[in-house]
Amino acid sequence: MSAVVDDRPSPEDILAEYKPGSICNDRLQNFLTYDNVEFQPGPRLNVVVGPNGTGKSTILCAICLGLGGQPPHLGRADDDRHAQWLHGCTK
């Protein structure tokens, strides 16, 4: 009889790798091009890549806004499509 060994790290071990202030989880609902998406950045370097128009900047803008940034700081204040940031996000 053989034993099954689970070598995956525990959630506590994974969280221990993150520095204080790190983003461990992010969820966007009805935000610009996203209906519902959730992602978990790793504890080190994270790179957002993809073709034009796939929502890379939307993810970064959501993070900035979630941390208290303002649309003028993101260079999108003059774009009417992004005015919903100021009044709530609805589709």
Automatic annotation (TrEMBL):
InterPro entries recorded: P-loop_NTPase, Rad50/SbcC_AAA
GO molecular function: ATP hydrolysis activity; single-stranded DNA binding
Highest taxon of source: Eukaryota
GO biological process: double-strand break repair via homologous recombination
Entries under Pfam families matching the protein: AAA_23
Residue ranges of coiled coil: none
Keyword Coiled coil: yes
Secretion signal span: none
Keyword Coiled coil (UniProt): yes
Stated family: Belongs to the SMC family. SMC5 subfamily.
Protein name: Structural maintenance of chromosomes protein 5
Organism of derivation: Thalassiosira oceanica
